[in-house]
Write a structure and sequence with these properties.
By secondary structure, the protein is of the alpha/beta class. 29% of the residues lie in helices and 14% in strands. Strands 5-4-6-1-7-10-2-11 form an eight-stranded mixed sheet. Strands 13-14-15-16 form a four-stranded antiparallel sheet, with helices on one face.
Length: 478
Amino acid sequence: MLKSSISVSRTRRQSNAMLSRRRFLSSLGISSFAGASLQPPLNFVFLLADDLGWSDLSCYGADLHETPNLDAFARSAVRFTNAYAAAPVCSPTRASFLTGKYPARLQMTTWHEAAQTPPLDKPVIPPKVRDALPLEEVTIAELLRRRGYATGHVGKWHLGTATHYPEAQGYDVNVGGTLWGAPQTYWYPYTGSRRYGGEFRYVPGLRNGRPGEYLTDRLTDEALEFVKAVSNRPFYLNLWFHTPHTPIEGKPAYVAQFKEKLRPGLHHTNAGYAAMVKSLDENVGRVLRYLDESGLADRTVVVFASDNGGSVGNFDGQRNTTNFPLRSGKGSLYEGGLRVPFMMRWPGLSRAGATCEEPIVSNDLHATVLGADLHDGLNLQPLLRDQVARLAREELYFHYPHYYETTTPVSAIRTRRWKLLEYLEDNRLELYDLPADPAESNNVAASRPEIANDLRERLHKWRVSVNAPMPTSPKMRG
């Protein structure tokens, strides 16, 4: 009986593996059957903004910013309105995009520089966590390179020191990807030490620049050069902009333009930040135009997203942005820290101009590219076909056991209706009815204890299942 069970189990695993492979090959436009007619494989271009808030684009409700190219892209793609970063800060979300795993499972729950140096003077002591994406994790780039893809990374990396740079994670080309989370400056030569504690920073791989050159433009130049060089074969490209992360340095002419637009009653009021968003939009437009003009658009999947909610902190005495109508921002597990713009255009599959309200998370990109549910991610291709479809998932989980200017250590669970936050200093609960209260202004944990307790139990079980790193009391740390 045992041998029979093992045989059945092995057969099922083999069958599932074959099915996953067929789904993967099908998603790339390649038949898995010998002798079948081969279709050209799809290319993948992943455009990622840094600290761009959910409402920072016109198509998501911005009132000062101008984003005509991204708005046009939204009209050609599926726009997700309940898309979430897996973490409220950059490094763990980027790891989740690449691996399809929750940051807590990866033991990567905060950004690189802070991972190993938790503060020791707080009510609870955050855990030390991984400061680099483990080399044993298999990234999208590694999987696609095994199948003949050219793989390139341009821009921000922030997933470890040199032994963990993009070249070690499946990328043939790396331009600008380092351990750092922000550039010293957006102006050539992109070097200096007047910020970040006197540390000297630079952006490698950008030779032969010129005075007045702007980093967002130059990274796009490099990305387009990569595409031109490899367009005779399938390719996968990360163009991971630093924009609009601090330092807030917009082009002066654009800053002046947005200062002229300022008026009472606007939610967005930072002309420098608006200028950076304008440059981001222009460069997304450059990529999209090149794909159109080169004939690549009809076989290239394009994804645009942000790595976490907009930063509501101050730079040079002015608040960076607002995530209105959402609460708070980067670092927080409120909606303003987690919900992000996310759009995807998949030739022959996505419906132009459609809007999808189904909750999704950054983990899902990995599964979507591969065409099958995998790890902690779900394949979003059914939502690209049918925007009112539902995924086979009841909840999303978030875990940030660290301090930030917007939060104390906290975990959260979100279902289609409810969102529960559990603060880890004192186990305080907050419960919000998101469809009725997207601003999370009315905590109903006390009036709906049965829902709060159920969600807390599910959250605790999930934390155990992924071995989530937890804060400790100062006494326990000795």
